[in-house]
Amino acid sequence: MKLLALDLDGTLLDKGKYISQRNIEAIQAAIQKGIEVVIATGRANFDAQNLFEDIPFNPWIIGTNGATIHKPNGELFYSAPLEKSLAISMLKVLEEKQLYYEAFIEGKICAPQYGRELLFEEMEHLKVVEPNIDMELLRLEVEIQFNQSEFMFIPSYQELLDTNSDIYNILAYSFDEDKLKNGWSQFTTIPDITIVQSGVHNFHLQHKQASKGNALKILAKELQIHLADCAAVGDNYNDLSMLEIVGLSSAMGNADKEIKDACDFVTKPNNEDGVAFFIESFLKDSFS
Length: 288
Hints:
By secondary structure, this protein is α/β, with parallel strands linked by helices.
């Protein structure tokens, strides 16, 4: 293995969105063995980079589900943004459907002003429908969304009409399953986009060429590493495009069965240092 691509949420990060010391040490051990460790995430690059502020780790970052690749120094290396007028029209639909969204542009994450109140209302409704649901975990999810780096509320998508910035990715998010499915259905016939899911409460709208798999192909070529010499670890459907093309793939123990079935190996869950277990196992040459 010459390159290792790691997803963040549900993979490298635990449920509290922290990186454990064991995972840090495993990454450092891989780097010492000459392995290029890359982050491949649905997050914006600047938000991902902030997770490593206190860690001696400065990776290439495949961000916004493959719509961007940033160099270790933060410079943009590659991008596949949405066509601007199409992105604006999709944001208009999301607002009309009263779905929470985040628009990822260079240096910022923009969400509608109504978003906070909407998500907490949906949580309260979900509590009535599913009284045994872990409300603290849902609240943590929402607060993490709002605490992303360079996150800002905007009155409306129309605020983005006058900006020159590309829109790389649009995240739609709801605790109302029917509402989320209806929102998804609004975009299924658009030929120039891809729709992927990175969690049970969301979907992403992105350029048809934007995926973690495509971005990994581009980066591996730049680094002159064959895909057969690459490995990847992930937990969700937005990870499949990279898990399916590498020489060695691992699903997290917390992944859905479809993700596990697509991989060569299933490691432990993210709350049990599954990334570290995968790296340690590989370095010890313990795969059968």
